[in-house]
Design goal:
One of its GO terms (molecular function) is nucleic acid binding. InterPro entries: RNaseH_sf. With 69 residues, the protein is an all-alpha fold. The protein has one domain. Helix content is 68%, strand content 0%. It has helices at 3-16, 24-36, 40-59. Helix 1 runs antiparallel to helix 3. The chain starts with a helix and ends in a 10-residue tail after the last helix.
Length: 69
């Protein structure tokens, strides 16, 4: 998983597990609904964070850059 994946999964997990799930179908419905209703601001933050990571990677010529955040 990439950084954007972790961020989005964290967001979706919070939404999906906000209430206890009772059936498999309920879980599927919750996941679909959560994905359909991701706020624009969350998507923009995800893209911006990904762009920042790409820029850091380029600045470090593909080397380690996590310590620069």
């Amino acid at each position: 998983m990439t950084s954007p994946d972790f961020y989005l999964w964290g967001y979706l997990k919070d939404v999906v597990y906000e209430h206890e799930t009772t059936t498999r179908e309920d879980m599927i419905h919750r996941i679909q609904t959560a994905c359909e209703n991701i706020p624009r601001a969350v998507l923009l933050r995800t893209v911006e964070h990904f762009q920042q990571r790409i820029e850091l990677c380029i600045q470090q010529n593909g080397g380690v850059f996590e310590h620069l955040r």
